[in-house]
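agent> Task received from the user: take the single chain below, predict its 3D structure, and emit structure tokens. No templates, no multimer pairing.
agent> Plan: (1) validate residues, (2) run structure prediction, (3) serialize to tokens, (4) report one or two observations.
agent> Step 1 OK, no nonstandard residues flagged.
tool_call: predict_structure(input=
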Amino acid sequence: MRTVTILLLAVMAAIPALAQYPVVPIDSIQTVPCNRDSSLLAGDTVITGGLITAGTGTFYAGAGVTFYMEDPAGGPFSGIMAYEPNAQGYPDLFPGDSILCTALVSEYVSTGPPFVVMTELFIVPGTFQFRGYGMPQPNPIDVLATEIDSTGGADSCGEKYEGVFVRVHSLTVDTVINYTTTSVWICHDSLGGTCFVREASDSIPNSYRPAVGTQYDFVQGVIYHRFGAYHLQPRYMRDMRLLGGFPSVTTYHSPQFPLVGDTVTITATVVDDHPIPAGNVRLFYRINLGGWTNVPMQPGENDQYIFRLPSPVAGWKVDYYVQATDDENHTTRDPYEAPFTFFEYSVQLAREMTIAQARIDANADFLPDLLDSAVIVRGIAISPNFSSGTYSSFFMQQDTAGIQVYFGSAQITVNPGDSIMANGVIDQISGVTEVHVYRGSRLANYGPSGHVPAPRVLTCANLGDIDGEAYEGTLVRVNDVLILEIPNPWPPLGSSATMTIVDSDTATLRIDRSTDIDGQPQAEPRADIVGVVSQYDNYDPYLGYYQLMPRYYTDFTWRPVNVADDGILPNSHVLNQNYPNPFNPSTKISFSLIRRGNVTLSVYNLLGQKVLELVNQELEAGAHEVEWDGRDRSGKPVSSGLYFYKMQAGDFIDTKMMTLLK
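)
tool_result: status=success, residues=662
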């Protein structure tokens, strides 16, 4: 390990002396006194590097991507999480990879209670450097449960382990708290100390839930600071080694919603401290409440056992559970209380219907009434694929109803106007109703139909909460809207962006990097825009966060602004995002007034302290712009970091965030 440390330090020392930002090791970013959880370098931009301990995609990060890295020397304060909101700019990373990057030291803030911040690195685009691979990852630090204990609801002095690869020995599971795709376990160690373990890895089956009383020789992983508590997050199944005793069993089936003719694969992951004897992992199943049949499951790779069942008859209801017995005759069933509880699925025969029928929500709960039901729908494609990977995701429309089509196994070519047939299951992802197709033979593109549905003309108000549901999945047009860089600027090549559009109301504009729009110029501040209505709402009820998604750069019809137009009054007071952002050394802040009045515009730091008052005067209606040069009220340059600017004009109050880089 010493050799690896010397190599990495040599690499960092080799950075040219004229580098724009200082070279800072991870522990200098993370070291803070006990009971402080915010980095002393928060807001600074630095050059740093380390060895990957948890690779890209290991833990969920929304539309972005996270990874964890650590100084090869290890020790307290040696680890940190990095985040890239657009999931781009570097290759897939794995434990043992060595990297270097320029990054903004930031804090993921929860306003509580309790107040908590997770220190993270925002990588500056274009600065990532891949230095090597196949190096030994840092050894985990042995810690006691009490050192990372947050079960009392308050932070401990465990900040020194945030982002660090650690191991806790002799853990016993006391409580399991289940969420949709994750779980949190309250555990105690042999000394009686308690801690949280959070299972949120994409490499661990979502269904993995240890029984209360399960004993582990050790659990290792990276420490995540979440909602006022430190959580030990295992990365892989191998990060959890069972104590001699009962095997651990986790089971799932695929496809989740089988149709007639599908073969259902039932997979069980069985982990024990010793090999499982041949034939001792068995599947118990029954059909339509008949007698239980048990068969041996076939061993595969990575502790997995498999059995395949046909689906010849519509209406079959299949119940099943898995039983594993180890060489010491210890038996575990999954589900734990089987056969009194069990997994189940039904074999469906898809029904053909209109898109409008497939979307019906008669009880107005913002969930389709046919959720999880098999359907066949036909329509005209109104978008190409909104994907650049190995899956298909596009929208089609029939009359005035539209729906998203998703096929996860391959990307098919789709163009607006193509005639489409989709045979799949009604699903809902982030509020968007979709047909999830599980087989390529059940998704047909019959080629050009000769027409594309005409876009309906809407206003921003039509795309607001609740109202937007009526237009989800359809092609629409908004006219003469102002495009604001809130929260993102116009996207450079290879990036996506979420922006705000304004007429007499506001709505969300989403530009996806799978289109030809990113990297093109924003020709004018205002435009007529054609696009598909989508949604990105992760909270039930799914009634908000509708967004307009243009498909091509030609979906923008720019509205030129000449000198005579400068006096045109906006429909409401507007505070725009500063530009550029991030900035160094100065930035411009623009705003518009619908009437003459007194306006104040001030800059604040993260502690809420006023840094400078930029405007405090009576202003005429119309557009205005001021510049901030990064200095406080005494004329001294402020430090790099995050700042807020707040505008008040009568009853209108708005606040936005900006970043100063030095």
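agent> Step 4: summary for the user.
The CA atoms of residues 496 and 513 lie 5 Å apart.
agent> Done.
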